[in-house]
Write a structure and sequence with these properties.
single chain, 8 helices, 45% helix, two-stranded antiparallel ribbon, 155 residues, mainly alpha, 2 domains
Length: 155
Amino acid sequence: MAAHDDTTTHDNITVNTNGKTSAKIEDHFCHLTDPRRRRPVYPLINIVVIAICAVICGADDFVAIAAFGRKKRQWLSRFLDLSAGIPSHDRFNAILAAIKPEEFEKCLLSWITALHELTGGQVIAIDGKTLRRSFDQATGRAAMRETASSKGNRM
């Protein structure tokens, strides 16, 4: 995947040439090494974006990631080139397993840090419980919430 010419990375934060922090996921993952040797069918950014969105939405295995991609194809096609379609669960597994974890972590932390900075540190509800005001009436407590990092640890 080629690096974007209009972005630079400083202290693990990707910034545009105008000096502003970027929230665009492709700006943060543009330095991720594509582990495939042959000409890829699916762009690496597609694999990464679909997987991250799926995990944030509750996917906990590769079958669920591929199913998410198929179900949300129309929405995903608004910002991804899906002309090759949605990869199978086996393709997600093979490609994600071959990515260098340190590189992926660096890209992911850069993106999450940028989101944190751009939102002024506000918490973003990603599991829907906060948005629905889930509440355990038996105990009188709010439902347990998960963060993006705890959801990511399940893969």
